[in-house]
Automatic annotation (TrEMBL):
Species whose genome carries this gene: Lihuaxuella thermophila
Pathways per UniProt: Amino-acid biosynthesis; L-methionine biosynthesis via salvage pathway; L-methionine from S-methyl-5-thio-alpha-D-ribose 1-phosphate: step 1/6
Catalytic activity from the UniProt record: 5-(methylsulfanyl)-alpha-D-ribose 1-phosphate = 5-(methylsulfanyl)-D-ribulose 1-phosphate
Coiled coil: none
The protein's name: Methylthioribose-1-phosphate isomerase
Keywords: Amino-acid biosynthesis, Isomerase, Methionine biosynthesis
Signal peptide residues on this chain, from the entry's feature table: none
Gene: mtnA
Amino acid sequence: MKFNQAIPHPQSVFWQEDHLVLLDQRRLPTETVYLHLTTPEEVWEAIATLAVRGAPAIGIAAVYGLYLGVRGLPDQEEIFWAELERIADFLNSARPTAVNLSWALKRVVNKAKTFKGEPVSSVKQAILNEATAIHEEDVRVCRQIGEHLLTLLQDGMGILTHCNAGGLATGAYGTALAPLYLARERGWKFKVFADETRPVLQGARLTAYELMQAGIDVTLICDNMAGAVMKQGWVQAVIVGTDRVAANGDVANKIGTYSVAVLAKAHGIPFYVAAPASSIDLETETGEQIPIEQRSPEEVVAGMGKPIAPEGVQVYNPAFDVTPAEYVTAIITEYGVIRAPYRENLKRVLNG
Ligand SMILES: CSC[C@H]1O[C@H](OP(=O)(O)O)[C@H](O)[C@@H]1O
C-alpha cells in the first residue's frame, strides 16, 4: 500500500516503488525521519529496535521484508523454497510477543506454497501481492474495529488509553484509537487521557503526537496518574490495543495495561480491548503461555537519553504484561463486540 494523504495521521509503514519505507518511531515526536529499507536484515533491525512497532505494523513490515529477501533469489526451486522458509524464520525472531508477526509471515508463506510448480518469478509476485493485501486489509479492519467500538461509546466521553495502538502501530487508523478518528469524521468529541507509558513512552511520544496532529483533544498523564484521573470521574471508558489475545480471553499488551485494567474494574469503568483477528491466537490456551519480551535495562535507566538511576542498578523490564480475561469488559474485533465467555465466543466468531 502506497503513501495515502487522506489518512488523518502520519503513516508509519508503506511500500514505495521497490522498497519499504518506515517512519522511524524512535525519533518521534521531535524528528520526522523516514527509513528506506531494502533487505530483511534491515527490517529485522527496525522491528527489534522499535523503529517500527505495534503488533499489526510489525506484521506488515515483516512480510514486505520477506519479499525484499526473496525477490533477488535465482529462479531455482530448491534454493528459493529453502531461502523463503529461512528468511521467514529469521524475521519471526525479531520480537516474541505480538502474534501478528508470525501470523503475517505464516499467511504469506502458505500463500506462496499454493503457487508451487509455477515459475519462481510468479511466486515472488504472489508474495508481494499477499503482503500488500495484508497491509490494505489491516486498514479496513482498523476502521471496522473503530465502527464497532463507537457503538459502545457516547459523544463527549472521557477515554483513557495506554501505550500507542493508533495509526502508527497499524496500517492506518489504529485499533484502540480508530474510534477517535471515526468520531472526528462525524463531529463527535472525546476527551482522551493518554498514559505516557514508561519506559519507552509510546503514549507521550506517539499517541499524544498522532492525536494532536489530527486535532483530537488529548491530555498526557503519567502512568501513576491513571487512578486519580479515574477517581475524578473523568474517564468513562478505557480502550487499549493488544499484542496477543489467548484462547481464554487473557490479553497481552504493553506493560502497565494490567494495572490500568485493575484500576478500571475498581472504578466500575468498562475496559475494552481492540483486537484484530490477526492478534487473536486460539492456539495459545491462556495468558500464561504468551511469551513476554524482556527488553534492555537501558530503556528504564537511560531511555530519555540521560541516566535517571544509579549505574549498575538491577532492572526488570518486561515489555508486556497479561491482563486476565476477568478484567476485560469486551474484546472488539472487525467482526464485532465479543464478550465473555471468551473461550467459546472467540472460537465461534473466529472460526465462523
Ligand atoms: C495495535 S498495537 C498493539 C500493541 O503494540 C504495542 O507494543 P510495542 O509498542 O512494544 O510494539 C502496544 O503493546 C500496543 O498496545
